[in-house]
# Entry
Amino acid sequence: MFVEFFNELLNGKLIGFKCLDCGTVMCPPKSTCDNCKGRNLEKIELSGYGRVTSYTVTYVAPMGYEKEAPYVVALVELDEGPWIIGRLDVDAEKAESENLVGKRVKVYGKEFASELFYPNKEKRVVPMFEIVE
Ligand SMILES: [Zn+2]
# Structure
């Protein structure tokens, strides 16, 4: 399921699940409902739009990601309700000098070099948020 999620993300599509019992929407996909623990889930395509709820600039990256720092990690509330984590597509300076909380964003997938944790040359796809307003 996660492979499909990331492949679709590279195609610009954001996949989630909707619980057919209680209506809760989840993203990224999970095997049980966050709300009622039900397993009666339907795959749906989300709009990919949401708003930045918080973000932080990472200067000291975890092992394996050093070359990518600094980067901006953001928590976004999607229009359909779920909150997802990804990277904000702005440089560290802009993120530090402007308040980007509340900005409207669109999600897309970006493929990063796979090194330390992806020795089998699997794709490493990161959700990215592009500011659209
Ligand atoms: Zn449910």
Q: What stands out?
A: The chain has a mean pLDDT of 92. Residues 19, 21-22, 24, 33, 35-36, 38 surround zinc ion (CB under 6 Å).
